[in-house]
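[recover] target loaded
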């Protein structure tokens, strides 16, 4: 890489429930010295730097090859720290933090002057959350500073849910990976803006829209308008994407299965290799096809699908196929986040097949 001298990336195993204090202390030393540490959260692996050290935060952008206009989430280890990062606390912020933290909800709030421009992409707001993972919390505590951390992948690529995924994207570009095993939620946090007149989901994620509505009443879901893509750049239409071209099929189970069958057979006739990303319930109907078949979970278990989604996409990306054909899993609970990620992985190539 011309943009960064290669360094040795160490991997330290840590017990996800009772992280070894020495491994955490070593990681915290690197953070305090301005270095980069990848660590597990309950959603995906994050690539952390001291959030109040502008130089350290800039290194995140270099390591990920991430454009500087894409702001980072600041991770904290208690609700009280939120007040130190916020200019003016929106009315619902404290209540949401007390209800959902630690957990996969990121709150976008007016930013305090001490938060560096590098973190907020120069904008007037900052995104903050308290992760529900013992390793992440221990690291923030030991570093004695908030930690800015986007997902620990190359920009635009699939977020990592295992230490080996971090290594395959960022080896030689970061100092250390704390390996706490696979992450339990598997998709990124829900990003909720509290600066809009109505609380607005900028990115669906680990906290469901239903759970937010139960507490807040009306919650808006940001549409893909260009202005909102600028508000929350993680919502660019192509993101979380495998290198293999992908298409997403939406519709009734029967219509989706018929469309997948036809598309797989046509591709086969053209001499193309395809992979199908389906639900467990689809497997009996599709297993005879000349295609790589992978099911991250059941239609009745959106949490399970979310947990295995990114590892499944990475496996299909390595399967040597010309095209990935995926099915939609609906919108209930975490399925909304799964739909969002699959739509972006497909770069917006979505086919409606009737319902
Ligand atoms: P990542 O953790 O890699 O998914 O990246 C963090 C994502 O959080 C960004 O891509 C944005 O979508 C979102 N985000 C971070 N800060 C802000 C902010 N101040 N306003 C809106 N969205 C934000
Ligand atoms: Mg990301």
């Amino acid at each position: 890489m011309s943009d960064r001298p290669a360094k040795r990336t160490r991997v330290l195993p840590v017990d996800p429930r009772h992280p070894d204090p020495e491994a955490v202390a070593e990681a915290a030393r690197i953070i305090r010295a301005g270095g980069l540490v990848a660590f597990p959260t309950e959603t995906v692996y994050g690539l952390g730097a001291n959030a109040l050290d502008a130089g350290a935060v800039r290194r995140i952008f270099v390591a990920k090859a991430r454009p500087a206009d894409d702001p980072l989430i600041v991770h904290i280890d208690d609700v009280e720290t939120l007040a130190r990062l916020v200019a003016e606390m929106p009315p619902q912020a404290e209540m949401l933090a007390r209800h959902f933290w630690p957990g996969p909800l990121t709150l976008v709030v007016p930013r305090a002057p001490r938060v560096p421009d590098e973190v907020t992409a120069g904008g007037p707001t900052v995104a903050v959350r308290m992760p529900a993972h013992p390793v992440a919390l221990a690291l923030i505590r030991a570093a004695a500073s908030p930690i800015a951390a986007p997902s620990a992948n190359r920009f635009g690529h699939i977020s990592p849910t295992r230490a080996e995924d971090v290594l395959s994207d960022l080896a030689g570009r970061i100092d250390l990976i704390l390996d706490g095993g696979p992450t339990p939620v598997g998709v990124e946090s829900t990003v909720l803006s509290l600066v809009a007149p109505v609380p607005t989901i900028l990115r669906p994620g680990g906290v469901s829209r239903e759970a937010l509505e139960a507490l807040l009443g009306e919650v808006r879901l940001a549409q893909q308008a260009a202005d909102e893509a600028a508000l929350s750049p993680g919502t660019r239409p192509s993101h979380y994407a495998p290198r293999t071209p992908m298409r997403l099929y939406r519709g009734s189970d029967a219509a989706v299965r018929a469309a997948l069958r036809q598309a797989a057979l046509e591709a086969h006739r053209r001499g193309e290799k395809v992979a199908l990303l389906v639900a467990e319930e689809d497997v009996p109907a599709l297993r005879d096809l000349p295609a790589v078949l992978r099911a991250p979970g059941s239609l009745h278990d959106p949490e399970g699908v979310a947990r295995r989604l990114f590892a499944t996409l990475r496996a299909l990306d390595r399967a040597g196929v010309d095209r990935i054909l995926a099915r939609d899993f609906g919108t209930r609970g975490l399925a909304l986040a799964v739909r969002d990620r699959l739509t972006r992985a497909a770069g917006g190539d979505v086919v409606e097949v009737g319902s």
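[recover] notes: The first strand starts at residue 10 and ends at 13.
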